[in-house]
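User: My advisor asked me to double-check a structure prediction for PilZ domain-containing protein before group meeting. I don't want to rely on an old file, so could you generate it fresh from this sequence?
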Amino acid sequence: MRIERRIERHQLPYYLKVFNRITDKPMGYIGNVSLDGLMLISQLPMLVGARFDMCLKIPGQAGQHLIDFSATCQWCREDVTPGGYDSGFALVAPPADYVEMVDALRLYFSFHPLAASV
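Assistant: Sure, here is a fresh prediction for PilZ domain-containing protein from the sequence you gave:
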């Protein structure tokens, strides 16, 4: 028996792509974020210790919203997916737009139980 899904799925990699701010070339996509850093999933390994100027292009109803930031690669390892790499980045002075995005993602993906009625 075939079950049809009624809930629209959103592919986060499509929405959370990271670009090199200087060249505008895609670097990869966000695997996870915190206020202090992020994990980048990419097809190429990142140079540990290097500082990167990055840009997030967030699609929205009013067009793309750009979040520019700089981050230093702390570590890089091969992903469990063949041909992929995971890299950890520490942000250098995260801009307010980045902080707002992390807060919005935290709220969106948090479980908020309903208050029990007595």
